[in-house]
Write a structure and sequence with these properties.
Blueprint: H1 2-10, H2 14-37, H3 44-65, H4 69-97, H5 103-136, H6 142-151, H7 157-170
Length: 177
């Protein structure tokens, strides 16, 4: 939902969206290079959880609290560097712990579950943004007033609240276990 956030906040500035998306790609590329040249981790599980937490903190939470293009670019760039560490360590962990004759089935099942949730999440996020959070952030209420201090007002404020909630859910103690 990053495009909806950036376009809503910038009045449909597609150049701004392109710059933020480029920052995502450059961060991913840099993370991939780093994970290739750095010595493999001793404790892959810790790296996976740490990278996930850092990515959500810098990405979702960082972008939700940002109101300018340079901050969105920085959050997009820095939040995608750890994703390469997460993916590389998860793949290595699965390859070393799943018997080779079962890897095709296990990786296919994992990918099916992982990628099938993306359209569901985007659909639910879109419905929540259009029918709950964006309209709520245009009403007059004490809660909206408090939230607008952090997330601003106008188009994109509701999506910022969604980004923050998703980021904080990933940083909860349960997800870090």
């Amino acid at each position: 939902m990053l495009p909806a956030l950036v376009l809503g906040r910038t009045g449909n500035d597609y150049v701004a969206l392109g710059v933020v998306e480029a920052a995502v790609g450059i961060g991913t590329l840099l993370g991939s290079i780093l994970v290739t040249v750095i010595k493999p981790a001793q404790n892959r599980v810790k790296i996976i959880f740490f990278a996930c937490g850092i990515s959500f903190l810098l990405g979702d939470v960082g972008q939700s609290l940002s109101h300018s293009l340079p901050l969105w670019m920085a959050a997009a760039f820095t939040s995608n560097i750890p994703m390469a560490f997460l993916n590389a360590n998860l793949t290595a962990l699965m390859r070393t712990n799943v018997p080779i004759e079962m890897q095709g089935r296990v990786f296919s099942a994992r990918d099916t579950i992982q990628y099938s949730t993306i359209p569901v999440g985007l659909f639910l996020g879109g419905v929540a943004a259009d029918h709950v959070f964006e309209p709520f952030m245009t009403t007059i209420s004490p809660l909206r007033g408090a939230l607008s201090f952090f997330f601003g007002t106008g188009k994109g404020a509701g999506i910022s609240v969604i980004f923050f909630i998703v980021g904080m859910m990933d940083l909860s103690p349960v997800s870090l276990l």
